[in-house]
Write a structure and sequence with these properties.
Layout (H helix, E strand, L loop, with lengths): L1 H10 L3 H18 L3 E7 L3 H15 L2 E7 L1 H13 L6 E5 L3 H7 L9 H4 L7 H6 L1 E2 L2 E2 L1 E14 H6 L9 H13 L7 E2 L8 H11 L20 H13 L13 H9 L5 E5 L3 H4 L11 E4 L12 E10 L1 H4 L2 H15 L8 H10 L12 H11 L3 H9 L2 E3 L7 H16 L5 H19 L1
Parallel strand pairs: 1-2, 1-3, 7-8, 10-11
Antiparallel strand pairs: 3-10, 4-5, 6-8, 6-9, 6-10
Helix pairs in contact: 1-5, 2-4, 10-11, 19-20
Amino acid sequence: MRGMFARRAVLAATGAAALGAAGLGARAARAQAGGTVNFIGWSAAVDQVRAQISAFERATGIRVNYENFPWAQFRTALVTRLVGNAPIDVSWISDAWLPEFAEAGWLAPIDDIPELMKYNAEAAEYCTQSMRYRGRQYGLAYYGDHMSFMVNAELLQRAGIAAPPATWDEVVEASLRIKRQGIAEYPLLLSLAADTWLIEFVSALVFSHGGRFVDERGEAVMADPARGAVRAARFLREAIHTHRIVSPGAVETAEINGLRAFGSGAHAFAIVPTYRIRALNDPSQSQAAGRIRLALMPKGGPEGTNETCGWIRFYGMTPGAKNDRARRERAVRFIEFFGGRDTAGNYSMQKLLLTDLGLPFCTLPLNEDPEVQGFWTRWAGEGGGAVIAAQSARTRKKDVISPWFGEWVETANQAWQSVCLGRAEPEAAMRAAAAKWTELRRAFR
């Protein structure tokens, strides 16, 4: 089964990407002799990355050979190059790919490199855990974010609700009040389309209901009513079909469409990625601008917590770079400059990504930076930065990330959608997801 997962990754690569790999290999091989770091990212933050590269080159005298690809093609292009042994030193990696890439031998652990490991002391715990697999750490974070509970303060005021709900029961109660007053037909907005975002949305609900999908040993507990996944599924079903506070169309609402709907001002509550707060409070992008505020994720049931789901993207080093002394030294300096502190001692890249693009960070000291605080005050309101920091401290990585995650999540998405459509009881849906997890986990062994 291990071999099957690796072959699946390899076969995903296209012939066109393979030709691109050959071109990259030739260029990188020529550049390597001159002391160059070969870095691949996806087509995001390109201007910011180039600015940081210029700063890195000036500060270190090391050149950077930078290429990027659209997100939709990035994984395929990267796998092709890794399989072809292209001389890549550092690349951006999604936390969802880590187990598969580590098993395939495409990433090198960094936990024996003190210059990089020292940054764990200043990073959010969920970020560090998201870069660990089988006890080894594989990178430093590019950015880290989590699902946030957001409210439309104006709609709450119109309904006479003084403060954001603290529990999911209170969310139901407030939503019904808003609905009865004719302020909003579906006060709670959830984006539940069966796409790559769904696992983050439902994980936030499961964690806030005191639940887990798997236990510390990696065994499925999602079908256990005492673990919260069943309670979260029941909450969803009742919100849609009993209380009618969530639109039945939520099962077809993708994250970007949910963002637009919440920005229209038609909903009072929503679960939204934190980085979207800037767009929601930007008058040029949102009709509800200036009214959206953040609150801690509501607690669900007797075992409820304020926990939510987080995810990261990180800088990973290839074994080829690590095993060559000169390449390793350059790669370490690059990763530290981009994922840690620069040569002036500043978290310059993380701060730039926030202030330019609104992307949150993993580095805790930046919470005290006056410019960072000013950014959050501008876009999240007074005290918004403190809420984000408090929620980050209550954020957990997805506990289902594994070499078989891509196989399992298809079944899990179907299970959650069947609950939302009223076609399956929460218990039966979670049993189906648990059975698939157990099947894949046993096969992998």
